[in-house]
Amino acid sequence: MKTAVVTDSTAYIPKELRDKWNIHMIPLNVIFSNEAYQEEVDITAEQFYQQVKEKELPTTSQPPIGQFVELFEQLSKEYDAVISIHLSSGISGTFAGAVTASTMVEHIKVYPFDSEISCMPQGLYAIEAAKMALNGEDAANIMSRLMELKKTARAYFMADDLSHLQRGGRLSSAQAIIGSLLQVKPLLHFENKVIVPYEKIRTRKKAMKRIVDLLGEDAAGGEPYQAAVIHANREEEALDWKSELETLYPNVEFTISYFGPVIGTHLGEGAMGLGWMRK
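Structure (tokenized):
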């Protein structure tokens, strides 16, 4: 049984890696005024952060169901099954769109997978699934492996500018004002599929140190982990952080990734994150 792997643009897997592992991508959209851009297709992360400085904060939207149907039908000519891996159903209707589309196609069995997370941790699921698919593993085995990985997946994010969370409806105005006055950097994570505060920490430096400690709790046993340092237009800081982490945790394989347009709309420039799971 030949299996295809699909994910959405919020996994932020670089094109060269998508091509290498034969991962198909469905883009989400950012909308500036009335102009919609498909992220990772029409607009890069760099272009997005530049536009945000010049224009109003955009809105975001999930892919139309027809886009899923079209891709699944196209894949059905070559594949028997497709694993469709998406950002958490608690923050977007993208996963639900894949589920609906799966009932509208024939000649291919679709296995939608709710990553319950986003960004490169979601991408790590897709890369693992793609490697297994290229190895000839069937869809059921791949889904079983993804469920196993989910038990060890973690991600923590720090928003540098609370105004994006507040404008996006993720934080009340009062919380944003108080947080800004106190220099609070809310440490966020996914719980029951939605983004919630994990801890309130006073400074950026302390927030990042706390994330490092949280990784340390999981990596302390010496088992092999994979992790992604994720930044919102702070590549140099991310590279420095990665070097520091590699020294601390030699059993963890680190990559650098980024918060692209859709997630960056809600977190804002300067956000930093770290996501990891067992190998």
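The mean pLDDT is 92. The two ends are 25 Å apart (CA to CA).
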